[in-house]
């Protein structure tokens, strides 16, 4: 799976659940259409972390007890920018090689 031409696994935008706060209300599970969450033993668990859409944190606002958190958005934007620059650099290098062949 890719996000803006970057392999999703390279983008560490993953939700975290504070199990001490989670009440197992299922709000995140019912809200998220990407099957990120599962309810086990009365609390939410991250089942498919890379299904989470990079930069989406909407489930955080539906949690009534504030048990869901995400990485710092500003830092994440910087990381994504760096990854995209590396990807563009690699693509440009491939184009240069193809020109000379």
Description:
The protein is α+β, with helices and mostly antiparallel strands. It has one domain: Alpha-Beta Plaits (2-Layer Sandwich). 38% of the residues lie in helices and 16% in strands. It has helices spanning 27-31, 58-62, 73-100; strands at 2-3, 6-7, 16-17, 37-40, 43-46, 68-69. A two-stranded antiparallel sheet has the order 1-2. The protein has a two-stranded antiparallel sheet with strand order 3-6. The protein has a two-stranded antiparallel sheet with strand order 4-5. The two termini are 31 Å apart. The relative contact order is 0.21.
Q: What is this entry, summarized?
A:
The protein is about 40% helix and about 15% strand. It has helices at about 25-30, 60, 75-100, and strands spanning about 1-5, 5, 15, 35-40, 45, 70.
The CATH top-level class label:
Alpha Beta
What spatial form do the alpha-carbon principal axes imply? elongated
Q: Architecture in CATH?
A: 2-Layer Sandwich
Q: Write down the overall mean pLDDT.
A: 86
Element order, helices and strands? EEEHEEHEH
How many helix segments? 3
How would you sum up the major sheet? 2 strands, antiparallel
**DSSP E strands, number:** 6
Query: Poorly predicted ranges (pLDDT <50, ≥5 residues)?
Result: none
CATH topology: Alpha-Beta Plaits
> Largest beta sheet: what is the strand line-up?
1-2
Structural class: alpha+beta
How helical, in percent, are the residues? Answer: 25-40%
Rg over alpha carbons: 18 Å
Proportion of residues in β-strands: 15-25%
Number of domains: 1
State the separation between the terminal residues, measured CA to CA. Answer: 31 Å
């Amino acid at each position: 799976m890719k996000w803006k031409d970057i392999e999703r696994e390279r983008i560490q935008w993953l939700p975290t659940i504070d199990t001490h706060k989670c009440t197992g209300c299922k709000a995140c599970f019912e809200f998220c259409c990407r099957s990120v969450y599962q309810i086990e033993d009365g609390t939410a668990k991250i089942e498919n972390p890379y299904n989470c859409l990079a930069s989406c944190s909407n489930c955080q606002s539906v949690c009534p007890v504030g048990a869901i958190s995400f990485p710092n958005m500003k830092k994440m934007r910087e990381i994504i920018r760096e990854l995209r620059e590396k990807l563009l650099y690699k693509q440009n290098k491939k184009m240069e090689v193809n020109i000379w062949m």
